[in-house]
Amino acid sequence: MSVATQEATPAAAKPAKKKTKRGPEHRPGLNRWLPYLLLAPAVLAELLIHIIPMVVGIWMSFIKLTKFFIANWSAAPSAGLNNYKVALDFNNAVGEGLLKSFGVTVAFSLITVALSWVLGMAAAVALQPPFRGRGIIRTFFLVPYALPAYAGILTWNFMLQRDTGAVNHVLNQLHLSDGRTFWLIGSNALVSLIVVATWKLWTFAFLTLMAGLQSIPGDLYEAASVDGAGNLRQWRNITLPSLRPVNLVLVLVLFLWTFSDFNTPYVLFGTAQPPAGDLITFHIYNASFLTWNFGTGAAMSVLLLIFLMIVTGAYLLVTGRRSRRA
Amino acid sequence: MRETQGFKIYRGVVLTVLGLFVLVPLYVMITSSLKPLKDVQGAFSWWPSNLTLAPFVDMWKTVPLARYFVNSTIVSVSATVFSVAIAILAAFAVSRFRFRGRTAFTTTVLSTQMFPGVLFLLPLFLIFVNINNSFGLQLVGTRLGLIITYLTFSLPFSIWMLAGYFDSIPRELDEAALVDGCGPMGALWRVVLPAARPGVIAVAIYSFMTAWGEVLFASVMTTEANRTLSVGLRQYSTQTNIYWNQIMAAALVVSVPVVIGFLLAQRHFVAGVTAGAVK
């Protein structure tokens, strides 16, 4: 079914596009340059803040950029592939730290994305049929997303304190623990990170999936009901396939966001991160700004970029191939 | 979907569990902001037994919160204004003109959204330091540097969403304006923009939220003079004391405007996200 719509759309869209071509472009001269003029500010801003720094960053990863050369970086000596060798030598401290941080980040991202998606889907489906109070609940669920990230994380930081926090208090009252658990240091740090990140992220999954559900025609469900399909089967055979394009984008975006999450560890732990909560962005940040070794930091950033590009590329390739087969 | 008994139970369970998940931190934030310092330094209690508004008064004195507020407001408002203006122009070009490099532009801009900030942070910091050294234009430790940086953060999403909005406005309207003697810019100003107002509002709120909540670049690019709220709130943790009640009060105060703005515009967001996801 999705194949049919994909084929239909370009064919239907083409004549409409042709018609507009006559629109503002029927006067040559200025109008030929106008679109470029309109784009110029955006291009300039993107160049200055994103493109040029990215190129500079790649170049930085090949030079020996320590704090002596910050003001006069063109004088920094070349390092060849040395920064990469240091970052990837898993037998020394720097490389080992990066590898561990990478492992923590992979675990953190996979669990957080999965949890956020499940919670978002559960809520979106629960709110699919209209009922009294639906609008209010929907709005309420969006509050964690609307809140400035640091405000929500600070609150969690307070709740996760060992002696004064709400989390230990509740666990103690429910007799699930003695109420003296450390959440922000030691091995529980990863659990804390996942809970806090999910708290904020699931509402975005919810928002997106809810929007996707609205575009599924109701008669599909009616027809399935007539055929005797239960709710669970309707979800599997109608909801899930219809949401496929939404899910493809959503999961990728969630993954890229969580993988480069900086706010959660930074606000939760400050600059003293526990090894179990040492997410990669935070690790690179500390490696660069605490030790002022920008060259190695830049090499780590480039490695992160390459990894994310490979994951994105592989993801698009696999999902693209599967949808063509379907 | 039919509302069977089973579905009603499912709905009840899901909404209760998730409702509590969302509610508890908000509740803790609000009630803790109403407790005296000794109550947040002892064991946690659900009910504030000594209600006080003192944290909302004291929070302005413990740290220079007013200054952080001014900094955040100036930075976020300026970044929003420039970002929206730039996005409107770019989206108009993408939506109404067919020109060479159009696809290259949209793909490049969208893909910059995907890359982690830490990638740009180090080089951008060095570029700013060097601009300062060669041209005397100070960008690290000033509001200007933050404004320039932040305005690009929301740009990709804004362009994408506005282009979608503009696409949905019938071109016959532009053409009518052109026939009436408007130039293309006049058509944008008099016809397209008024029709796309909900989209512009949604994009503006998104840009503001992005700038208001940014932590990573603020933690490197700010000094005491241009410190914004996102890093300023850390100052409540001193060597001797952590003023949790004031932190919660300040967090509440900085959140309220953004949350209200977002919730008012959420309809447009849902529309924008759907349009994007379906494309």
From TrEMBL, chain A:
InterPro entries: ABC_transporter_permease, MetI-like, MetI-like_sf. Residues 1-26 are annotated as: Disordered. Pfam families: BPD_transp_1. Keywords: Cell membrane, Membrane, Transmembrane, Transmembrane helix, Transport. Its main location: membrane. GO terms for cellular component: plasma membrane. The chain crosses the membrane at residues 36-60, 106-127, 139-160, 180-202, 242-260, 298-318. One of its GO terms (biological process) is transmembrane transport. It is a multi-pass membrane protein. The keyword Transferase does not apply. Gene3D superfamilies: MetI-like (1.10.3720.10). Residues 102-315 form the ABC transmembrane type-1 domain. It is found in: Cell membrane. Belongs to the binding-protein-dependent transport system permease family. This is Carbohydrate ABC transporter membrane protein 1 (CUT1 family). The lineage of its organism: Bacteria, Bacillati, Actinomycetota, Actinomycetes, Propionibacteriales.
Automatic annotation (TrEMBL), chain B:
It holds the Pfam family BPD_transp_1. GO terms for cellular component: plasma membrane. One of its GO terms (biological process) is transmembrane transport. It is a multi-pass membrane protein. It comes from the Bacteria. PROSITE patterns: ABC_TM1 (PS50928). The keyword Zinc does not apply. It is found in: Cell membrane. Keywords: Cell membrane, Membrane, Transmembrane, Transmembrane helix, Transport. The chain crosses the membrane at residues 12-30, 68-94, 114-132, 144-163, 200-222, 242-265. InterPro entries: BP-dep_ABC_trans_perm (IPR050901), MetI-like (IPR000515), MetI-like_sf (IPR035906). Residues 69-265 form the ABC transmembrane type-1 domain. This is Carbohydrate ABC transporter membrane protein 2 (CUT1 family). It comes from Kribbella rubisoli.
